[in-house]
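Morning!

This is the sequence you dropped in the shared folder:
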Amino acid sequence: MGFLDFGRAAPVRTSVEGLISLPGHSTSPRQAQSIGDAAHSFAGPPDDARARNIPLECAQAKLEQAPAEARTWESRARESERAREQIALRMDVARRAVYDANLRLERAKARAEQAEARARQAEVRAEQAEVRAEHAEARARQAEAATDALLSSTTWRMTWPLRTVGQHVSPRLRRAVRRASSPFGSRCD
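The structure's back. C-alpha cells below.
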C-alpha cells in the first residue's frame, strides 16, 4: 500500500521496539540497538514523525469536509442562480417599464406637437381676425368720417327744412317723389 489507504494514513513505527517487532524478522538486542540508533538518526525525533502525520491528518479532515463544502458550494451556486434569475426578471420588468415610459413619452411628445400646431393655427386665425377687425374698424372710421362729412356739409344743412317737412308727409307721397327723382325711372319699393 502507499502512504494513504483509502484516505487513512499508514501507521508510522518510530520506536525501536516497533522496528524489532516487524513480522518475519528476528533480531538480537544488539542489532536492535544499532537498528534503533539508525532509526533515530534516519527518522529523526519522534516529534518529527508526528509533525509529518499532521499534514496527513489535515488532508484527511479536509477530505472528510469536502462533501459538506461541495454541498455548501452547490447550495450557494443554486442561490446565486436564483438571484441571477430574479435579477434578470427585475431587469426585464425594468426594461418593459422603460419601454412603456418611452412609449408614453413619444405619445406625449406627439400630443404636444399637435397642441403646438393647433396653437400656431389658432395664432394665425387670431392674427387674421385681428387684421379683419382692423379692416372693419378702418371701414367703420371711414363710414363715420363720411357720415360726419355729410352731416356737416352745406348741402345737408340746406336740405334740413325739406327733410323735416318730408317726415310729416304720408308714405305714399314720399314714394311718388322718390320715383320721380330717381335717375333710372320708376323703382319698385
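Headline: Helices lie at 16-20, 29-43, 46-151, 154-158, 160-168, 171-181.

More detail when I'm at my desk.
O.
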